Amino acid sequence: MSKMSRLLRGELNKILMRPILYIITGVIVLALFFSVALLGMDNRGSFEYAIDGASKEEAMTSFIGSQSMNKTIAEKKVEDAYTKLEYYSTLNSTAETTITAQLKVLLSESDSPRGCQTILRDYSASIQELERLEQTTASSALLTNRKEMLDTLTQAKNILVNSAQAGTPAVLMSQASYDNFINLINDAIYYITAEGSDLNLLATHLIIKDKITKATGYADITGISYFDKLYTIVSNDITNIVLSQEVKDNLIKQYETTTAFMTNTYDNILSLNGDEKATVTQLKEEMLKYFYAADQYNALVEDTIYLEPVKNFSDSKAHIYMSYEKVHLYQINERIAKNNFLISNGLTSNQFSSVFSPTMSSGDKVSAFDLVYFGLEICSFIVLIFCVVLAGGMIAGEQSNGTLKVLATRPFSRNKILTSKILASMIFGTIFIIFSALVLFIIGYALYGLDTTPILAIFNASTVFTISPILLILIYLALIIVKMLFYVLFATMISVVFRSNVGAVAISIFVYFLTALFAVLFTSSSWYAFLPFAGIDFFKFFGGAFASSSQNPLSIAFSSPMFFNTNLWISIVIVTATMLIFTILSYYVFKKREIK
C-alpha cells in the first residue's frame, strides 16, 4: 500500500508541474463566469397556469370565467377524457363494433348492410339482364345498386380516414397500407362513377363494367375484384386499438380518484374564500390544484390509449405506423408514470419542482441549484477534455521523454504504475468538478436564492419519487464522475496502445468531439442509442431530458438528448462492458509491451 501511495503522490506532483493544469484552471474560471452571464433558462412558472386577481373576489372571478382555463373547462377536460375511455371500451367490447369489423361488413358479401361485393354482383346481373332484353334505359334496380355502391365505398373510406388520422387513432396501420386502401377505394369510385356519361344509358353501364374488368384483371366482375384486395388489407394490415381490462380498470379508478380530488379541492376553495384569515395565495394554490388535476387525468387517458398498441414495440418499429411517425416511447411512458403517481397520491405537479434541465428552471423561477446544474454542464465539458488530454498523454508522453523507463526500473509493478496514473487523473478531475459546483452554488445563492421545493423525479420512465434538490445535485455530481472515468479509461487505452504522445492526445480528443457531434446529428437514429458513448450520460434517466423550451443556443447545445430506443439497463450493460474492455486492454498491453 505504501508503494501505491508513493506512486500516486509522484503522479500528482507531475500533474502539478504541468502547465496544462493552470491553463485549464483559468479556462474553468472563465467558464464559471460565462455560465452566470449566459444562463438562458426559461422560468417554468411563465409556462404554467396563473390565476389573475389581487383579491379573493377577483381570484374567484378568474377561476370561474377565465378564457384560458376555468372551472368549467377543467371539468370538461376530465369528462371528455372519460368519454374517450368509454368509446374505446365500447369499441372493443364486442367483435362487431370494431373498426375492422365495420369495414369487413362493408367490403364483404354481407346483406345487412349490403356489402360491396354483393352490390357489385347484383349490379353486374342487372347489366346482363338489360343486355339480354336489349333495353336502352337502365332499370331503377340498377341505378339503386350503383348509388348503394358509391355510398358504401364512401362510408368505408370515411371510417378509415377518421379512425387512422384522429388525434388518438382507433386503428393501428402503416402509411403504406393506408395509402393502398384509400387509392383502391378512390379507383373503385372513379370506375363506378364513369364521370361524364349519362346514367340512363345502358352504354354507360357497359363502359363501367369494362373499366372494372380491365382494372381488376378478371373477366367476371362478380368474382375477385378490388374489394377482395381491400378486405385483405383490413384483415391483415389493420389492427384495432384494444385496451386491456387491466388498463381500463386503472383509468376508471383514476377517474374516480380525480373527480373526488377535484370535488374536495373545490370545497376547500369555497371554504378558503369564506375564511377571513385565509390569504389570496392560499386560495390560488387550491385553484391551481383543481386545474392541474384535470390536466393530469386528461393526459393520462390520452397517453395510455395512444401507447397501448405499440407499448411492446421499439421506437423504430412504432415509427412505421400512422400517427406514430416521430413518437418517443420513453417520453410517453415517463408521462404516464408521473401522472399515475400524482393522481394515486392526491398530488398535482405544481406542488413540486422539476428535474434539472439546461433549458428550463426546475421551480417557478431560476434558483441556485439551476445555476449549479447549468454551469456544470459547461464546466464538466472542459474538465472532461482536460482529463482526456491528461490521460491520453500520460503513458505515451512519458514513453517519449524516457521517464517511463526510469519508473519501470524501480520496484513497482506495472499494474500499480498504470493504476496510479488513472487515479491521479480522476483526482484532479474530481477536484475541478467539486470546486466548480461550490463556486456556482455560492454565486447562485447570492443572485437567485435557494428553492428547496422537493423535486419530482421519474427514474427510467417507471419509478416516480420525490427528492430534495441538494441530493439530486449530489447524484448528478456522482454521475459526472462516472462519465469522467469512462473517458479517462478510454484515453488511457489510447495512450497505452500508441507510442506517440501527440497521436494519443489527438485521437482521444478527436473521438471525444466526434461523439459530441454524433449526439447532435444522430439524435433521431435508433441505432445510435446502443453505442457506449451515447449511453454514458445516465442523469437523463431521472426525468429531465424532455423539459426543453428555451431557444438559447448555449442551453440547447448542452442539453443531453434522449435517443430513440434508449434503455437504461441496456446502456448500463454496454457502458460497463466497454469500460471493462478499456481497462483489460490497457493493463494487458501495458504489461506486455517493451518500455524503451
Q: How are the SSEs ordered, and which strands pair?
A:
Elements: H1 2-16, H2 19-37, H3 56-65, H4 71-91, H5 99-107, H6 116-133, H7 140-165, E1 171-172, H8 175-193, H9 202-216, H10 226-237, E2 239-240, H11 245-274, H12 280-307, H13 315-318, H14 329-344, H15 368-394, H16 396-401, H17 403-408, H18 414-448, E3 455-459, E4 463-467, H19 469-497, H20 501-521, H21 553-557, H22 568-592
Antiparallel strand pairs: 1-2, 3-4
Helix pairs in contact: 1-18, 2-15, 2-18, 4-11, 4-12, 5-7, 5-10, 6-7, 6-9, 7-8, 8-9, 8-10, 11-12, 12-14, 15-18, 15-19, 15-20, 18-19, 19-20, 19-22
Keywords:
596 residues, mainly alpha, two-stranded antiparallel sheet, 4 strands, 2% strand, flat
The radius of gyration over CA amounts to 34 Å
Q: Poorly predicted ranges (pLDDT <50, ≥5 residues)?
A: 216-223
**Which class do the helix and strand fractions yield?**
mainly alpha
Q: What does the overall shape look like?
A: flat
Distance between the termini: 27 Å
How are helices and strands ordered from N to C?
A: HHHHHHHEHHHEHHHHHHHHEEHHHH
Number of strands: 4
How many helices?
22
> Mean of residue pLDDT?
82
Major sheet: order of its strands?
A: 1-2
Strand content: under 5%
Number of domains: 3
Largest sheet data = 2 strands, antiparallel
* Proportion of residues in helical segments: 55-70%
